[in-house]
Amino acid sequence: MNESMKPKVGEYAPYYGKYIDKIINEDISKLLLNQVEEIRKFYEEMGEEKSNLAYAEGKWTAKEVLNHIADTDRVMTFRALCFSRGETSPLPGFDQDIYVSNARANDIPLMNLLEDFEMQRYALVSMLKTLPIASYTKTGIASNHEVSVRALFYIMAGHVLHHLEVLKERY
């Protein structure tokens, strides 16, 4: 998937524009994989102890952010699979705060969370590489909004860029 495959406005809910706009002239497959190393490097430098801390009261810990990223990748990958295969039923949204709370990421060793994210990323990139090009523009309804398959991959990459910016700024 190259720049010509970048989703157009209208292929995703306006909220996701902030993620998609972060990606300029990038090979999305390479970016998705490069983010594995960037995340790993950031968290390994942070370390286990500091990753259990939040930057402010009521905010997620760095581990919770990492787990949230992996969960979001899972949800978006599932949506991409469904829509690329012609699913016509609307898919539900997900409440990120409930997911974070129930994941109990602070009880999981950091290295396990990093491995989980890495494996999820390899799986989604493998799926992306095996999708017929014609399926990139297929759409479906998720969270009450129409979204294209290609937009979902851009959303995942931009979502990580967003959280890395916050992590680097506040943690």
TrEMBL record:
It comes from the Bacteria. Residues 38-166 form the DinB-like domain. Gene3D superfamilies: dinb family like domain. It comes from Belliella pelovolcani. This is DinB superfamily protein. It holds the Pfam family DinB_2.
